[in-house]
Structure of ABC transporter ATP-binding protein:
Amino acid sequence: MRKRKIKKGIFRLLEIAGSRKNLLIASGALAVLHAILSLVPYVLIFYIIRELTQVQIDFSLTCDYIVQAVIAAIISMVVLYISGILSHIAAYRILYELRKYIIDRVGKLPMGYLNNKNSGALKKVLSDDVERIENFIAHQIPDFVKGVALPLLTIGYLFSQDWRLAAISAVPLVVLAVLLPKMYGNQNKKLIQNYHQSLEDMNAGIVEYVRALPVMKIFGQSAENFEKYGHTVKRFYGFVQQWIKSSTPAFAVFMSFTSNALLPVLALGLYLYFQNGISLATLLLFLILGTGYIKPLFAINNMGIQLSIINRGVEQIDALLDQDVLEEKSERQRPDNYEILFKDVSFAYQSDQLVLDEINFSVAEGSITALVGPSGAGKSTVGQLISRFWEVNNGTISIGGINIKEYPTEQLMELVSFVFQDSFMFQQTIYENIKMGMDKTAEEVENAAKAAQIHQLINSLPDGYDTRFGQSGIHLSGGEQQRIQLARAILKGAPILILDEATAFADPESEYYIQKAFSTLIKNKTVLVIAHRLSSITNADQILVFDRGRMVSKGKHEDLLKNSTLYQRMWDAHNRAKDFVIQ
Ligand SMILES: Nc1ncnc2c1ncn2[C@@H]1O[C@H](COP(=O)(O)OP(=O)(O)OP(=O)(O)O)[C@@H](O)[C@H]1O
């Protein structure tokens, strides 16, 4: 991992915000101005009352105060509105740039990174975490600035009127300053982190539970039996209890001080008033402002919770941004041929567990090589490494004598076509699903579909090639989807072809068509087939036998039957499976 250690939480957020910081600062400054202006009418009311309690009342001055109070209230509202607009503009611009930045970086990650687990995490970062940041920037930051500025300004002003009453009015502010670190400080940090982690685990557990429902019903299982989900709910409940237990006493103290703040102000105020220490206007001023500043204080308390959520989101965004990106070469290479060569290749998904150990083989241009071996032997991994889904830990993989790292990704993708175990279909038309944004004509798309033995079926669909696939359109069987994948590969026409169990899910009829399409596809290509059905690869130019990450034998079918006990066992098992009947 790259070392880029960095600011945290809100400071990191401001760093990410970059040039939008100025908008945020302007929004914050306007929030302070709003706080000042919202105090003005109260001060003017104080002047009005003071005037009205004089023996000789100056009515024109009183009217002036009223007009000024109304103007201040209106300007205060306008300033708040502009502050809100600026914070929203800043929030959405930051969101836009953040998403763009993340997607741009993800585009440079090894393709293998985007497996199911990571694409779930990426979805969460791009939608949930980034969305929370919007809420935080657009709403919480101005509220927080106001929540700090208004109480401080109010207390400051009150001190200028009467220090004794001001001191007693400031008690809730002091209490909050003392308690805030207790509620959200270092002591509770770990607890809050655990709370968020368990909330995320519970959400993931719920999604898994809903997905597993059909299987659970078939096996007569109930929600209680779905241990993982139950466990995550209990864990979450445990953390909520722990958090509440540790933060409630401090919160209760804060609440009791704020809810009863009027009493001490009233008691001392009346005492001073009857002692002729203060005027009636001053007493009323303290009764209104001495407790009126308390409500915005809740925004500070709320900010504590929001900050912990934002810290978590920012951490997860950073974890994604910290992934090593592929080193990208820009100069196109000119390979003499399309021979694939693995030289001493070792690879581990997790640092300590080798999935491939010192693999050496070559696939001559225009030949067919099959990879066979028990489940988990590393066959698919070999296929994925050729397209640089992951970086090898040791050794080199080359195409046409040039290390694949030297090819720009775009060129490598032009050289290799991959037919995956699962076909991914977009919710678009069949035409677009075959064309896949390639620079090809409609005629070429149709020819590819013909070669993939799927043209007739497409023509029989309601809108032919314009029929939409997916929720709002038609569905295709697994075998039909594989033929669409083959059509894509034929259309792409890459010189190297990697087929990962291309016929695994096909029905007999589809399989017949797939085999036909396959023979068109592999003509003059350098082919690597990752196969389970040994009968389809007996004619391969060479078969590589893998077992637990090592290449244990290689040769033609007949040679391996004589020399490789593992291959013999697999061949026997394959023949037994062919003859298997349900009795
Ligand atoms: N994305 C991944 N992250 C971590 N480990 C992985 C990942 N993909 C595969 N593995 C592990 O690597 C090993 C080799 O897997 P691979 O899929 O290459 O085997 P395979 O021979 O193709 O198996 P199968 O025939 O069942 O598809 C297995 O132990 C597997 O659990």
Q: What stands out?
A: The first strand starts at residue 340 and ends at 348. The first helix runs from residue 9 to 17. Residues 115, 349, 355, 373, 375-381 surround adenosine-5'-triphosphate (CB under 6 Å). Residues 172 and 255 are 9 Å apart (CA to CA).
